[in-house]
Design goal:
The protein is of the alpha/beta class. The chain has two domains: about 10-100 and about 195-210, Nucleotidyltransferase, domain 5; about 110-185, ATPase, nucleotide binding domain (Nucleotidyltransferase, domain 5, 2-Layer Sandwich). It is built from five helices and ten strands. It has helices spanning about 40-55, 75-95, 100-110, 170-180, 195-210; strands spanning about 10-15, 20-25, 30-35, 65-70, 95-100, 115-125, 125-135, 140-150, 160-165, 185. The strands form two sheets. Strands 3-2-1-4-5 form a five-stranded mixed β-sheet, sandwiched between helices. The radius of gyration is 17 Å and the shape is globular.
């Protein structure tokens, strides 16, 4: 474990969607990132991306203080691949793991805003994973539980003007606007991936608080059981 005077290097892994990314930070500052907007290459490319990024940042795995995982919800297969690799690295180097819910990352990367933020992800079957957030006194906080709900029920979450963020917004735009009317404020351009800097900053906050997960027991946050769709 690093002392308070040592630099904290975090390795971030994002595999919640069809694309993937790896990131390294020095304390809360992003040092480098490698991401591929290519579908379903996690199992073939993720390890290579990590080794390349370590080399480009002049770091070795023994310099890493903890592994930060985008914890889901999202692609069942992608999350399992990310977790499997992270657990292998954690066991090899006795590294702690920091789990960050993927919806938190989507909302945090929006930055400070006077409006509430709702992060959504397509859960298929006209359902959404979603959570509501706000900033108060420059503090980011989630309001309520993570939810799985039918897209028509999103109007119950967006009772006033609310900023939307998250995966699949472009695809879901029509259904969201039909369900919520004018209360949904959509970004443009639509975000494509969770941002690595947001994953690592949230991970650094957890690292300082020592909110670690155990490699033996941590699991992705699926929200619902696997049914062969995602």
């Amino acid at each position: 474990m690093k002392t308070e005077t040592e630099t904290v290097h975090l390795l971030g892994i994002e595999t919640s969607g069809l694309t993937s990314g790896v990131y390294i930070s020095s304390n809360a500052n992003l040092l480098g990132q490698v991401s591929l907007n290519i579908k379903n290459v996690h199992s073939r490319r993720l390890s290579q991306m990590i080794h390349y990024l370590l080399d480009q940042t002049d770091l070795k795995l023994q310099n890493i203080s903890a592994i930060v995982l985008s914890a889901g919800p999202g692609s069942f297969t992608g999350l399992r691949i990310g977790y499997s690799l992270a657990k292998g690295l954690a066991h090899a180097r006795e590294l702690p793991i920091l789990e960050i819910p993927t919806l938190d990352i989507w909302a945090y990367q929006y930055g400070i805003t006077g409006l509430p933020v709702v992060a959504v992800m397509d859960a298929h079957r006209d359902e959404l994973f979603c959570a509501r957030y706000s900033w108060k006194n420059e503090t980011f906080q989630r309001e309520g539980d993570y939810q799985l709900l039918h897209v028509s029920a999103l109007s119950d979450v967006l009772k006033t003007g609310t900023l939307l963020t998250g995966a699949d917004l472009e695809k879901l735009r029509g259904k969201i606007l039909q369900a919520t009317g004018r209360n949904a404020v959509l970004p443009f351009p639509f975000p494509q991936q969770p941002e690595g800097w947001a994953l690592l900053q949230l991970g650094y906050q957890k690292f300082i608080k020592k909110e670690f997960s155990q490699a033996d027991t941590c699991e992705p946050m699926y929200i619902r059981a696997f049914k062969g769709i995602m």
